[in-house]
Write a structure and sequence with these properties.
Elements: E1 2-11, E2 14-24, E3 29-33, H1 40-47, E4 55-60, E5 63-64, H2 69-73, E6 76-79, H3 91-101, H4 109-119, H5 135-147, E7 153-157, H6 165-178, E8 183-187, H7 191-197, E9 200-205, E10 208-214, E11 224-232, H8 238-243, E12 248-257, E13 260-268, H9 274-284, E14 289-295, H10 299-313
Parallel strand pairs: 3-8, 3-9, 6-7, 7-8
Antiparallel strand pairs: 1-2, 1-4, 4-5, 9-10, 11-13, 11-14, 12-13
Helix pairs in contact: 3-4
């Protein structure tokens, strides 16, 4: 549906994007991550046709944005970080206006706007002046304008920035629903939000795409696996013994009480499953395992690891 090929963009001596390529499949919700200055906004501006690339292509359904800009823009709904609202209009007037700009058939506009108001939970706000709306409702109106013309691709730049926790939850649920009918690419600084919403992630760092992964395989390639354990410590020093096992990197957070020892064990993420060796060792020590649970490799772990590697390679 959306394909980016070798995007490069330079501002004087600053290389904002450096040979960036990726694909977003139909009905996929893809998160674009990166620290400030990583190139996210530049990438989204080029993808939506707001800015030409220095080099490279943006393809939508096989059409080149540079060669067929009008046809490509019909396929994209864009919410920039600051919603492009006309504060003197009502919500309904504004959506009618945007529909006309996006060349929706005049006879179809009323029904289309009604559908958008329903999807974005703005029906009760339809006659409210945009300039009088709260931040949360302004963000909903921004998403609503992106839906005008029923574009199959939605590009959202920081859709939950500046919202309170309840509003964040509501916008998050809306994006998840939209992902059932649209291909969604959105940027965010909130990693837990991305982990809940997205099926895939792209991490930009210093203008380069340094990591791409499916959320279902977030742990693939991880440098470590972490386990929380509770052991009945009948004899010997269990944490010290576990530290001696090949593949165990660290034993930390040790708490003892009532004959039990609770600890966190960090193991190498590659090779044989270290849990088998831990089991055999503790069996020989007559130290039964009362609890063993794996800690999920978080998106924050992955983000810090790959951006740290990106710094080292620069």
């Amino acid at each position: 549906m959306l394909e980016v090929r070798h995007l490069t963009k330079r501002y004087d001596r600053v290389l904002a994007l450096d040979d960036v390529s990726f694909r977003v499949k139909e009905h996929q919700v893809m998160g674009l991550l990166g620290v400030n200055g990583a190139g996210k906004t530049t990438a989204l501006s080029i993808i939506t046709g707001c800015m030409p690339p220095g080099e490279g292509q943006v393809l939508l359904n096989g059409m080149d944005m540079q060669e067929q800009p009008r046809a490509c823009r019909r396929l994209i709904g864009f919410l920039p970080e600051e919603p492009p609202l006309y504060n003197e209009m009502t919500v309904e007037e504004y959506l009618h206006f945007v529909c006309r700009l996006r060349e929706v058939e005049k006879t179809e506009i009323p029904e289309h706007v009604e559908e958008i108001l329903e999807k974005t939970a703005l029906k009760d706000m339809r006659r409210r002046i945009l300039g009088h709306l709260s931040r949360g409702y302004r963000q909903r109106a921004g998403i609503a304008q992106a839906l005008c013309g029923a574009p199959p691709v939605l590009v959202l730049d920081e859709p939950t920035v500046g919202l309170d926790p309840r509003q964040v939850t509501e916008i998050r649920e809306m994006i998840m629903e939209l992902g059932k009918e649209h291909t969604v690419l959105f940027s965010s600084h909130i990693l837990t939000e991305v982990q809940q919403i997205c099926s895939g992630i792209l991490i930009l760092h210093q203008g380069r795409l340094i990591h791409e992964a499916d959320m279902s395989g977030l742990e693939d390639g991880a440098e470590k696996q972490t386990y929380t354990m509770v052991v009945l410590e009948t004899e010997g020093d269990v944490p010290a013994a576990i530290r001696s096992i090949p593949g165990v990197r660290k034993v930390r957070g040790i708490q003892r009480g009532e004959g039990r020892c609770r600890m966190t064990v960090e193991c190498s993420g590659h090779g044989d499953d270290v849990r088998v060796r831990i089991f055999h060792l503790l069996s020989s020590m007559n130290a039964p395992i009362l609890q063993l649970s794996a800690q999920r490799n978080s998106l924050e772990d992955v983000f810090l690891r790959v951006t740290g590697e990106g710094e080292a390679k620069s």
